[in-house]
Structures are given as C-alpha cells and as structure tokens.
Automatic annotation (TrEMBL):
Domain annotation Transglycosylase SLT: ranges: 140-212
Keyword flag Membrane: yes
The protein's name in its UniProt record: Transglycosylase SLT domain-containing protein
Alphabetized InterPro entries for the sequence: Lysozyme-like_dom_sf (IPR023346), Transglycosylase_SLT_dom_1 (IPR008258)
Keywords from the named record: Membrane, Transmembrane, Transmembrane helix
Residue intervals passing through the bilayer: 39-60
Length: 299
C-alpha cells in the first residue's frame, strides 16, 4: 500500500516517491536570515533611541555632562600614569640633582664643601646630601658618616668599579648583595646614584649594628679579612669628622687633621719607639687618585 505525503500549506507532495521526506533547502534558510535581520534591526533601533535619549539628557543637564567629563578625564590620566610607572621609575625616584636653595643651610654647606673638594657639580652632590640626611635618621646613622664612606669609596663617581666586583658610589659588591638591588630593578641599578646610596647605607647600618661600633662597622663594611682595615677606617673617620664640622658652620680645610679615637691606632706601621703623630695618620688617611675603591662585603 502506497502512502502519499501531502503538504498542508500548498498541497504539494512533502515526500519523495520512495516515502522519504522532501528537503526544502532555500525557503527555510531565507526565513531564518530574515528573522535574524529583523531582530538585529530592532536592536539597532533600540540602541539608536537610547543614544538619542542620552544625547538629549546630556544636552539638557550641564551638571551631569560636566561630571561625566571629569570622570572620563580622571580615568584617562590614571591610565597614563600607570603606563609611565610601568615603563620607568616615578619622577621623585629619578631626581639626580637638587637646587641648593631648597636645602637647609647645613646641607648646603656640606654640598658646597664636597663639590669643591672632589671637583664635582654641586647640584648632583646636593641631591646625594639630601638623600643621606633623609636616610640617616631612618637607619640611625649620622648622614655625615654615609657621605664620608661615599667620599672614600668612590670620590662621588657613580660609575666607579673595582677589580673585585664592587660598583657605584658606595662600592657595593653586586655579587654578594644582588638581592638588595631586586627592588631597584636588578644589579645594574648599582650605577644609579640614589639606588646605590640606599643599598650601601643599608649595608653600612647592618655592619655597624653587628659590630657594635662605627669603627667596627667600617671594618666589616670594607670586608677586612686579611688585614684589620685600619687605613680605611682612619680615612673614613677623618672625613666624617671634617663633614660634621662643616655642617656646623666651621671653616675646615680639605686635608685638615682630625682627632680620632685612640683605639684605632696608627694608619701605617711605626718604627719601634717612634710615636705616631696626627699629621702622619692624616696623610695616610687623605684620599688619593690612585686609591682602588673597595667593596661593601658585609653579609
């Protein structure tokens, strides 16, 4: 018995002669596309109406428009600032020079004295002096001591390097103290003056704390192993005493003899029976161009 399939819409056979359903490819697809387009058109119409309503609202409400403009401006400025901070250090972290007129009188006196003695520009020295005076109270170190170490270590040359791996103003051994530069972007920051100063001052503070005294801390800082570090200690303490007097307003010569603790002893060997004189100690303590910078090896 043969069954005939009839399409109830147009009375046309909906099945093939064999009884399989007839496929109508084009008509169904066209209907689907038409429905999607109608929905999209209605959506775009709604979006257009909403946009028009928003424009009318903003045009009739100036305070609301001003508030939205401020919000958009703040967002854009915030995005720009975030991008700058990701690419480089913030502006305060990159200040490498200071206007001496903005510094307290004692810092100005120290900056001028160091600039004349070591023949460097006073503005960069002013920035280092200001940083040392800021770090000193935080680390419980005299700022003049930090500056004295810097003077003897590198003569304020931020690119100084020693054969044993010490770098920068405070001659920090970047192999021993690589972890301390992680917060500054890595060991290459040893050549950034302020980064090197901060790391070196931290090492110095730790050395003084461990030793229990400034001379002992200097001995640890210089890494004296095969010698007692006496020459280095005398040089630093002599400069330290000069800087303290300069900051107080005294007129001090670049190589003025300074009283030093008796426990330090002479800076160079003295013949039996021959007392060590202060001028002799001071001559040995004076920084020379041929001096090789030493490394901060305190661990």
């Amino acid at each position: 018995m043969t069954t005939t399939c009839i399409d109830t819409q147009d009375r046309a056979p909906a099945c093939s002669p064999s009884g399989a359903p007839r496929v109508v490819p084009a008509q169904g697809l066209v209907q689907i596309v038409a429905r999607v387009w109608a929905a999209a058109r209605h959506g775009m119409a709604l979006f257009g109406v909403a946009t028009l309503a928003a424009v009318v609202l903003l045009a009739t409400q100036p305070p609301l428009r001003a508030e939205l403009e401020r919000g958009a401006t703040d967002w854009l400025l915030g995005r720009q600032a975030a991008t700058v901070e990701d690419d480089e250090l913030a502006a305060p972290e990159r200040v490498l020079a200071a206007n001496l007129k903005d510094l307290p009188p004692e810092q100005v006196r120290v900056a001028h004295w160091l600039a004349r003695k070591y023949r460097v520009a006073s503005e960069p020295i002013g920035a280092l002096v200001a940083e040392a005076y800021q770090l000193g109270p935080q680390l419980r170190l005299d700022p003049a001591l930090i500056l004295a170490v810097m003077a003897i270590e590198s003569r304020f040359n931020p690119f100084a390097a020693s054969p044993v791996g010490a770098h920068g103003l405070m001659q920090v051994d970047t192999r021993v103290h690589a972890d301390k530069f992680e917060g500054f972007g890595g060991t290459l920051a040893a050549f950034d003056p302020l980064s090197n100063l901060r790391v070196g001052a931290e090492i110095l503070q730790d050395a003084v704390r461990r030793a229990g005294s400034v001379p002992g801390g200097l001995r640890l800082y210089v890494g004296a192993v095969t010698h007692d570090g006496r020459d280095y200690i005398v040089k630093v303490l002599s400069e330290y005493e000069r800087l303290k007097r300069v900051s107080g307003g005294q007129q001090v010569g670049f190589q003025a003899t300074m009283p030093l603790p008796a426990s330090i002893g002479p800076a160079t060997p003295v013949l039996p029976g021959e007392p060590a004189s202060a001028p002799q100690i001071e001559a040995d303590a004076a920084p020379r161009a041929t001096d090789t910078p030493v490394a901060a090896r305190a661990s």
